[in-house]
Amino acid sequence: MLRFYYVIFISFPFIIYYITKAVYYYRHDEQYDEEQCYDLAQKLIERFKKNARIRTISYGQQQLPKEGGYIMYSNHQGKYDALGIISVHEKPCSVIMDSERSKMPLVDQFMDLIRGVRLDRNDIKQQYEASLEIAQGAEKGRRYIYFPEGKYERNGNKLQDFRAGSFRCAKQAKVPIVPVAIYDSHLVFDFNSLRKVTTQVYFLDPIYFEEYAQKTTKEISIMVKERIEEKLQYLEERRRKLGLNKSFKKI
Q1: Rounded-to-integer distance, Cα 84 and Cα 72, Å
Q2: How distant, in Å, are the alpha carbons of 88, 98, 146, 157 from that of 199?
Q3: Digit-coded pLDDT (tens) for 38-80
Q4: Most-buried pick from 115, 123, 158, 224 (CB within 10 A)?
Q5: CA distance 230 to 73
Q6: Contact predicate 53/197, CB 8 Å
Q7: Is the dihedral of CA 206, 203, 66, 30 positive or negative?
Q8: Cβ 228 vs Cβ 170: under 8 Å
Q9: Contact 58, 202 (CB under 8 A)
Q10: Which of 172, 143, 139 is nearest to 64 (CA)?
Q11: How far is CA 48 from the centre of its chain?
């Protein structure tokens, strides 16, 4: 967490500036459209990345659906995951986040800016309403980032179980599912280091509704998890063959 506290300290003036601006954009949404809000969010992230010495590279952007909405399902490694994806995703997209975590200072204002969807894990009715909101938004052309693992526990580049219910909204909306594999994202905050770090984002082949229409949400979750796991295993194997090792010492 050293990097987190360090970047908050040296970026404090910029944080105040961008958050104040984000609140203003949100409260005057009749003046600022989704693209303008997203542009501000990306500028905030770029400032954060520069001060935190983070580089994020992406692959597969050309495979993203050119028109209409879709839902990206990504593995989850830590606090930087959503920021990393947003920083390399050109078109405006939103994030589905646990409501408790989304109410933290800075996070709350950022979620408002990108029109994030908050999910209460303890309220079945609210979960249903949130799922419906996501489905309706995707039908209208919005794009979302969903972490079906639901949480992260210093799992590194290894996957945890996927929650089948996370895929209900995609099936309701009948929109493409885009598996996303993030790699080394955990290095940003899991280690007490300020060394430069590079994370990777892979947008995998979209799964269109025709391919998953007859599947249950459980079957869809297995299919998506397998595709992400295959990519992560390939990257780990390539790292071993090249003799590349992470030089961070875990605390």
Answers
A1: 13
A2: 11, 23, 19, 11
A3: 999 999 999 999 999 999 999 999 999 999 999 999 999 999 9
A4: 224
A5: 15
A6: yes
A7: positive
A8: no
A9: yes
A10: 143
A11: 16
Helices (DSSP H) in 28-157: which residue ranges?
34-52, 81-88, 99-102, 107-113, 124-139
Q: For 84-136, write each residue's pLDDT tens digit.
A: 999 999 999 999 999 888 888 889 999 999 999 999 988 999 999 999 999 99
Residue 237: how many other CB atoms lie within 10 Å: 10
Q: Which of 169, 91, 163 is nearest to 132 (CA)?
A: 169
Q: What is the reported pTM?
A: 0.91
Q: Which helix (H) or strand (E) holds 21?
A: helix 12-27
Answer whether 82's CB lies under 8 Å from 97's CB: yes
Find the length of the chain.
Answer: 251
